[in-house]
Design a protein that fits this description.
It is a single chain. The radius of gyration is 38 Å and the shape is rod-shaped. By secondary structure, the chain is mainly alpha-helical. The two termini are about 50 Å apart. The longest helix is centred in the N-terminal third of the chain and has 55 residues, at about 1-55. α3 packs across α4. It is about 95% helix and about 0% strand.
Length: about 150
Amino acid sequence: MNRISRNISIVLRSERLIAQRHLAVLRRQTGMMAAAGIAAGVGLIMLNVSAFLALSSSMSQPTAALIISIANLVVAAMLVSLAGKSNVEQETAPVVEVRDMALEDIEAELRAAANEAKATTDAIKGMARDPLGAIAPGIAGSVAKAVIKNIKS
């Protein structure tokens, strides 16, 4: 029973660690997505400014604004790519393995306890059906010891 409580404790701790890692990855992804959204917003503004400047003035100002907006969009794409590479399963794999081992051990302990209870039940049923047959081997052994002891004396 001690192993079962220890394994349940391991399972609960593992689940807590898995949840913490999930939240950490989610926070990181959310931050990167927010930064990507800001960069994309700035890029969109710069594209609008560059289009305006391209129509209203000389080529150098719009070209500069276009280069800046493209750079902002590239940064946004890189942030989205980095956020997508965060993998919760990879980070939690060792903890999941420990949790699964503890669960398997709990299942094995419960199966062993169930088998032991079934064997005890079967033995009690056997004694109820044939009480003398269940006691006879023990009595026969005691009688045989007593006889051998008396013969030696």
